[in-house]
Amino acid sequence: MKKGVTVVVAAGNDSRNLNSLHDMQTYWKQIYGWDIKGPSRVVPAQIPGVITVSSSNEWSKDVIAFYSNYGSGAIDVAAPGRDNGPVYDALYRQDPTGNYLNKRDFMYRTLSTWPTYLPPYPTANLTGYALLHGTSMAAPKVAGIAGVIKAQHPEYNPAQIAASIQQTAVDLGKSGHDQYFGAGEANIDNALLKK
């Protein structure tokens, strides 16, 4: 950031409110056994100056992906991180502890690279590729938009690039900036057409 580099990060895939210190600390204790006391942050998602990205999905303009972290002021924008489809999502939202693996629709996922030295990922019988979902699938899309904006406007600093991405995002969810989508879903066409 101080060196003129725009940093884009994934919000995380824990279905947690990044702004709820109690929720995050309870979660860390349950999942990782970490007993954290006092002030803490989720990094890199809550580092000032980064663009934090939640995950939208293609079938809803009202809710982010079931796994995506969120938080008022923590999320700058959303981007398509894909998911398991609307059937899985509805079941998960009714009961997050249920087992709905047989309800996953992999066609709602992102085609991503996968290390060739590993066995094929279970979602696809492909060498070098896998069908994945997550905020780690969403963040690179925003990083790509940031790169294209920088190419079009080499004079922009990281704050101006972040502002351009947020100002040209498509507003989803609750009207205006919200805890799930931030400014909205990042949109390359809008960003490039901005005058």
TrEMBL record:
UniProt keyword annotations, A-Z: Hydrolase, Protease, Serine protease
Record's keyword annotation contains Plastid: no
Residue stretches making up the Peptidase S8/S53 domain: 2-184
Pfam family, one: Peptidase_S8
Keyword Transcription found: no
InterPro entries: Peptidase_S8/S53_dom (IPR000209), Peptidase_S8/S53_dom_sf (IPR036852), Peptidase_S8_Ser-AS (IPR023828), Peptidase_S8_subtilisin-like (IPR050131)
Family recorded in the similarity comment: Belongs to the peptidase S8 family.
Protein name: S8 family serine peptidase
Organism: Effusibacillus consociatus
